[in-house]
Amino acid sequence: MPRAPRYIESRSTDPYTNLAIEACLMRSAREGEPTLYLWQNERTVVIGRNQCASAECDIERLERDGGHLARRRSGGGAVYHDLGNLNFTFITTPTEYDQAEQTDVILNAVRSLGIAAERTGRNDLVVDGGRKFSGHAYQHTGEASCHHGTIMVAVDVDALGRYLTVSPLKLQAKGVRSVRSHVVNLRELNPRLSVDTLKGALRESFTNVMGQPVTRQDVSELDQHELAYERERFCSPAWLYKGERRFGESRQARFDWGSVRVDVTREGGIIRDLVVFSDGLDAELIEGISELLVGSTDSVEELERRLRAGGFAEEAALDVARLVAG
User: Fold this and answer.
1) When you count CB atoms within 10 A of the terminal residue's CB, does the N or C end of the chain come out lower?
2) pTM score > 0.85 for this model?
């Protein structure tokens, strides 16, 4: 089937509206119509689907400064957005999803601006010295696949340091002292670069990689009732602070596949309540841990058996089982 790629750009800087647009685009994904969506948020901390909001962000300080807390539907870690950052989203059907091809759109665009960029690790794009300018996350449903991320052009890195409360375990794993020392703005490498210039490079790269002319779509063409409904979901306290309640104990660890914190309440050696916070990329799998483990004994063997039956790989199942068992 020939491809008819689409391009859409948000004029809003409201994070809840922009995440709602993304959700609507996923729901309308069709075979043969890969979509590139570009968007920007004003001062915002966006956390991953399974992260603990109060542990990842200084929410009081952020809101006092007029910022927003948002939670996306994909996994991964917390990121800071302002108007010096450009967000991208690729949306395809599952059969057309090609992460390498989509990443090439970003890399080719950045390289066309004279910046030697490369991919590294599980979901980062970096420049010389390993400094990160782009982090990626992913979401897959039965009908659509989403690959989205950030591109730092001229982000206020001081604000990034003020609002993000990154776990020392994560910094140690990356071998850096602070999140600020781990990132770089592309404008440091090309002082003439602007967000608009990058948008143009991305549109051109998308057209080249797709090998087809790109059709521009306007946000007004989306179902506006659906858009309003999705926005309300993204800004609701139930979504923003999901899983945060009082537990008997809490422990955390960092594994190769991500950071994990488990909050557990036990009675007589049985797990009665449990929530897992994580920046792991497989958001749906992690979200299902509570259902798998509530009612289990706290033996490592039983916990691992339940996790393996729920789809966890052997290593990850053992990691989580040992953490929960303590």
Assistant:
1) N
2) yes
